[in-house]
Structures are given as structure tokens and as C-alpha cells.
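Take a minute with the sequence and C-alpha cells given here and flag any C-alpha cell that looks odd. Thanks in advance.
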Amino acid sequence: MPDTSRETVPFPDGRLLNAVLDAAASLIIVGDMEGRLLCWNHACERVSGYSAEELGGTVAILERLIPEQDRARAAGVLDALGRGESPVSVDVRWHTRSGDMRLISWTCTALTGPDGTVTHVVGTGIDVTDRSRLERRLRHLADHDDLTGLINRRRFQEELERHLAQCRRYGMSGALLVLDLDGFKEVNDSHGHSAGDRVLQSVANALRDRLRESDIVARLGGDEFAVLLPRGTADSAEQVCLALEEAIPVEVPTPSGTPIEVSVGFAPFADGVESVDDVLSAADASMYAAKAGRPRRPEPKS
């Protein structure tokens, strides 16, 4: 058997360590406590597009790589290590040479001298950009209607709960609108579901175009939509109802050319509203009143 008690180091003069660092899949940085870059492996060069020589100083790293809004968080790592915290984890974005923005998740560890003073920092990073994008995409899919891109019933319910909590704290304001398309079933039955889908998408676009950015629009399901007007009054909500009933038949094309009609009802967030179900029920009642040709706003009790 060969003698393996003594292995010959294939890279003399410290080159083995450099080879190990450059072979690592993780991004590895070594710097001093003044922020000067001392070591930067090939993974860092590959992701950033810069060599260590090009980024041999704090200013260069901050100006070329790290967006301004992330710089204080990056600089805070040195402060935390100096206070004795180690390891320290931080997510920092890199603006690469190619113009791409990458999100790097770092774990930074302090190296100390013989007297216990922190002298250097070793950062090990993982590029989590694709994972972060996937997570955002999955969150978007969970919160949004796939056909129209509007938020879905579950997410809209959360927005209503959040708004009601603010109303209880700061005073009641705002209104909820619900919309239902009249004659939509005939579109599906006569022209197919693809044609119906195009109508729903056009309705969603019309709502986006007609409403303010602060208004929250949702598809509750089928041909039912809803809008939260966070600052709307009862009078302004009724005006929005009228405007939508006039605009949607004009702006939404149908395969038959016959305008699609819409019934819109509303309910204000007012004193006496105890739950989201209260305001949803009141808005539904208003919408069905409008569909039946009755006043959408109940007459005040004498």
C-alpha cells in the first residue's frame, strides 16, 4: 500500500488556500475593520463582474456595488462585529457591472488578534436573487387572481380587515364598492369561456384606469369585483358607482357588440360597523338594489 502519512501539497507557497477559496461556490470576502478589501474569490468576481483589484477600497465597493439605500446596513456589520457580535447576518444587494441587481445573503464572522481585538472580517455570501424572485412570484400568485391580475378574495378580505382596524383606531372613513356584471352568463354560453375571460380582463382594466392608485381593486370570483375606497365618503362612493355604471358598458368590448351592463353598490365604513361581514353585506344589498332598479342608498330612517 502507498504511504499516505505525508501528503505532498500540490500548491506550494500558500497557493492551496487561494485555490480552495476560488473553488468554493459561495462568495467569500476578507476585509479589515477599516473596510478595506483584502481577499475576494472567483465567485465574487463571477457574480459582480469586478476583480478584487478594481474594488480594493471601501469607497469603490460602496459606489460600484451597493445601492445607496443598503449602504448603512452594510457598514453596520463592522460596528456589530466590533461590539463582539459574531457571526452577523445581513442581506445586501449588489449592482453588478452588467447592470443587474443581485441579492446576496451574507454571514460575517470576526477574526481576532492575540489580544482579542477584532482585526478582520470574513464574509460568506450566497446569491439568493432567484430564490427571492421565486418567493415574490409565489406570494403574488397566492394573493392575485391569475386571469385579471387583481388581488383575490382572500387578500381583499385581509385589506378590509386592516382598513377596519385603522377605522377603529383613527375614526371611520372610506367605503366598499361591489360590482356584478349583468348578462355575463350569456357571453359565456353564446361565445365560450375564452370570450368571457376577455370581458373580465377588460373590466379589470377599466377599473384600474378609472380608479385612483390608492383605491384597492379585487376580483372576488366569477363576474364579481370589489373596490375599497380608503378615503371615500358615502356621497363620493355613490358618484363612483354611477361613473362605473356609465363607463364600463362603453369601455368594455363584447363579442356580440352588445354592451355589458354592470350593477354597482356600496357601503360606507361608518359608526355601527362591527365587522367586515357587516360592510360586505351592506354593499351586497346596495348592489342588488341597484340591479333591481331601486335606490342603492337606503332611505334614512325617520
